[in-house]
Amino acid sequence: MKVITVVGNKPMELNIRNENDHRIPFIKIALKQRLISFIDEGLEWVIMSGQMGIELWAAQVIAELKEEYPIKLGIFPPFLEYESRWPDVYQEAFLQIIEQADFYQPLYNEPYKAPYQFINKDVWFIEKTDGCLALVDEEYPGSAGYILDKMKKAAETSNYSIWYITPNDLEDIVRDQQEYNESHLD
């Protein structure tokens, strides 16, 4: 596995209303742990659209990991001005990630036209990657459910892999962090 993508929920689908939400650091820890294990196994590139939420947080984690690990980040939004309707804080974060990415290229060099741009983006990511790291509540997949359904079909008919970070994984990380913090208070 040399190239993967990351998919997941948008902030509002996770009931996260601002970037100061106490859950975001735990999400980033989960992403970091999994990505480091993939890098140790030979992962070279992570490519994604940079969608606000899980993808954008993963891109921020990868930007940090690039300082210590040989990992590259590619951002491929489905169209120009992809982030234009997002809240300002996410627009700013997206623009920062573009600056830190090793490669940036919208898949369509035009603004939003029609749903086909999202549909084709999903197919493109599946064709260009060996697998996907998904941080999605499968009971409530939200917008990530569209690409995840296509990825599941690809996994059934090819060597495509899907790795999940589950709500239980996140609970374990919260518990581990609490135990670590308590043990370091003494």
Uncertain runs are none
Number of helices: 6
Number of strands: 6
CA radius of gyration: 16 Å
Return the domain count.
Answer: 1
Helical coverage, percent range: 40-55%
Order of adjacent strands in the largest pleated sheet: 4-3-2-1-5-6
Q: Kindly state the mean pLDDT as a whole number?
A: 95
Using the coordinates shown, work out and report the CATH topology. Answer: Rossmann fold
- Counting helices, strands and paired strands, the structural category is alpha/beta
Query: Main β-sheet: number of strands, strand sense, barrel status?
Result: 6 strands, parallel
State the name of the first-level CATH class. Answer: Alpha Beta
End-to-end separation:
43 Å
* Proportion of strand residues: 5-15%
CATH architecture: 3-Layer(aba) Sandwich
Describe this structure in words.
It is globular and about 55 Å long. Helix 1 packs across helix 2 (54-65) and helix 1 (24-40) crosses helix 6 (167-183). It has one domain (3-183): Rossmann fold (3-Layer(aba) Sandwich). It has 186 residues and is an alpha/beta fold. The mean pLDDT is 95. The protein has a six-stranded parallel β-sheet with strand order 4-3-2-1-5-6, sandwiched between helices. It has helices at 24-40, 54-65, 88-100, 116-128, 144-157, 167-183; strands at residues 3-8, 45-48, 72-75, 103-104, 131-135, 161-164. The longest helix has 17 residues, at 24-40. This is DUF1273 family protein. InterPro entries: YspA.
